[in-house]
């Protein structure tokens, strides 16, 4: 998933909105971590579950804004975060249905993994639900809107 994030980084630019959908442990944060590494993001790219959003300046180019919409109950709450949608690359985990109307162009990434797959030890205090053993994932990337017309993914 990290490698996929790094590959996507090559086509992303300021104003791009990426929505990640998938169950806990699917690799949403791992993909964002790979994206951040490829962009030269400063700071540890980790799940922003409790802070809701983190901005990571990059070494060359737009900031990476990493949002976790899991705890949001309404799209208005996402708007209240006052994010710079136009100047940054914004990645929203759990964002399906929460970002409608924010941009006319969206890169939607749906990640699934096998049911019954081994999960990280739930009793470990420092377990990141996205840090699970390597196992197959199915990823469907859907690009909508004028920004993605003619862009090879």
The rounded distance between the terminal residues' Cα atoms is 15 Å
Strand content: 15-25%
What is the SS-derived class? Answer: alpha/beta
Q: Using the alpha-carbon principal axes, give the shape.
A: globular
Number of helices: 3
Radius of gyration: 15 Å
Number of beta strands: 6
Q: Unreliable segments (pLDDT under 50, ≥5 consecutive)?
A: 117-126
Tell me about the biggest sheet?
6 strands, mixed
Q: Give average pLDDT, whole number.
A: 86
Sequence of strands across the biggest β-sheet = 2-3-4-1-5-6
Helix content: 10-25%
Question: If you had to describe this structure to a student in words, what would you say it looks like?
Answer:
- With 153 residues, the chain is α/β, with parallel strands linked by helices.
- 16% of the residues lie in helices and 24% in strands.
- It is built from three helices and six strands.
- Strands 2-3-4-1-5-6 form a six-stranded mixed β-sheet, with helices on one face.
- Helix 1 (2-9) crosses helix 2.
- The longest helix has 12 residues, at 28-39.
- It is globular and about 35 Å long.
- The chain starts with a helix and ends in a 9-residue tail after the last strand.
- Mean pLDDT is 86; it is low at 117-126.
Considering the chains and any ligands shown, give keywords for the structure:
153 residues, alpha/beta, 3 helices
């Amino acid at each position: 998933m990290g490698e996929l994030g790094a590959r996507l980084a090559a086509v992303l630019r300021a104003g791009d909105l990426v929505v990640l959908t998938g169950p806990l442990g699917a690799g949403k944060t791992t993909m964002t971590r790979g994206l951040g590494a490829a962009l030269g993001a400063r700071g540890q790219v980790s799940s922003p579950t409790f802070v809701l959003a983190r901005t990571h300046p990059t070494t060359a180019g737009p900031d990476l804004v990493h949002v976790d919409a899991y705890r949001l109950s309404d799209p208005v709450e996402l708007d209240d975060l006052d994010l710079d949608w136009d100047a940054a690359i914004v990645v929203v985990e759990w964002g399906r249905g929460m970002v409608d109307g924010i941009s006319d162009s969206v890169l939607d990434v749906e990640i699934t993994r096998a049911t019954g797959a081994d999960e990280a030890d739930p009793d470990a205090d420092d377990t990141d639900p996205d840090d699970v053993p390597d196992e197959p994932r199915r990823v469907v990337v859907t690009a909508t809107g004028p920004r993605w017309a003619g862009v090879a993914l």
